[in-house]
Amino acid sequence: MAAPASKQTADGPTPIIADDALHQSRPSARRALLVLGAGIPLWLAPVGLAALLTGPGSVFTQQGLFFSGTALVTFGGAYAVLAYVAQQAVASYGWLTPGEMVKGLALAETTPGPLIMVVQFVAFLGAFRDPGTLDPWVAAVLASLLTTWVTFVPCFLFIFLGAPYVERLRGNKSLSAALTGITAAVVGVIANLAVYFAVHTFFTTTTALIWGPNHLDVPDIASLHPTAVLISIAAMFMIFKLKWSVLRTLGVCAAAGLASGLL
């Protein structure tokens, strides 16, 4: 017996869940508790295991807790997250240098996959330099896997937990106002990241000025890298004037950087 044909609408096949049902059905508290009961242990179990086996002060425990917190308190996508990661991983934990952070971002930009995977690069270097009793390469790989886990598992947890509430919150004016404020803050965070990477790309050395909670990297003018400045200007010209795609621009700039390094 042939399977019944699916109903068609003017916009395509009939959705599995009707739009009216999404707006009218009440989210289940039982479902939310089940998602939390399954998701939180899955998320934090590797961090607890790392603390149990290597101690609360090990690089694995530090990275597990730090990147778990990063997954919770950062908004605005990878660029907004990386501003916070760069500040803490370089200045607070010393897992890598500012120049290495810039190179990690360049590596993430020019390879397949999400940009946020640069956190794996940060974890790899941090554990390689402080492996404890493990072989440095083994420690680096384990830290990379742990960091990837605690970065992405919360994303799925939030999706499964919040999906039933999305349609109900769409018309919430208070939430919309809060999201507008967050969006404005994200613009400033991304601008801060751009300045951070520009300083550490254009200049070889910088001097850290710290007063209270404020931290400012002042570049040494004598350490200016003219090639990096010229490539950046060329990239802006290709993007804004010639309207080239990002991938095409990255390819040309990568080739220019490789050529300058070989000369």
Written overview of the protein:
- Helix 2 runs antiparallel to helix 7 (136-162) and helix 10 (226-241) runs antiparallel to helix 11.
- This protein has a domain at 28-196.
- It is globular.
- The protein contains eleven helices and four strands.
- The strands form two sheets. A two-stranded antiparallel sheet has the order 1-2.
- The longest helix has 30 residues, at 173-202.
- It has helices at 19-24, 29-54, 59-73, 78-92, 98-109, 118-129, 136-162, 166-169, 173-202, 226-241, 246-262; strands at residues 8-9, 12-13, 206-211, 214-219.
- Mean pLDDT is 83; it is low at 1-6.
- It has 263 residues and is mainly α.
Compact overview of the structure:
This protein is mostly helical.
Question: How do the helices and strands line up, and which of them pair or pack?
Answer:
Elements lengths: L7 E2 L2 E2 L5 H6 L4 H26 L4 H15 L4 H15 L5 H12 L8 H12 L6 H27 L3 H4 L3 H30 L3 E6 L2 E6 L6 H16 L4 H17 L1
Antiparallel strand pairs: 1-2, 3-4
Helix pairs in contact: 2-3, 2-7, 3-6, 3-7, 4-9, 6-7, 10-11
Helix fraction, binned, reads 55-70%
With helices defined by DSSP (H or I, 4 residues minimum), what is the helix count? 11
Radius of gyration: 23 Å
Which outline best applies? globular
Q: Quote the distance from N terminus to C terminus.
A: 72 Å
Low-confidence stretches: 1-6
Work out the strand percent.
5-15%
**Main β-sheet description:** 2 strands, antiparallel
What average pLDDT do the residues reach?
A: 83
Order of helices and strands: EEHHHHHHHHHEEHH
Number of strands: 4
Going by helix content, strand content and strand pairing, the class is mainly alpha
Query: Which strand order spans the largest sheet, edge to edge or round the barrel?
Result: 1-2
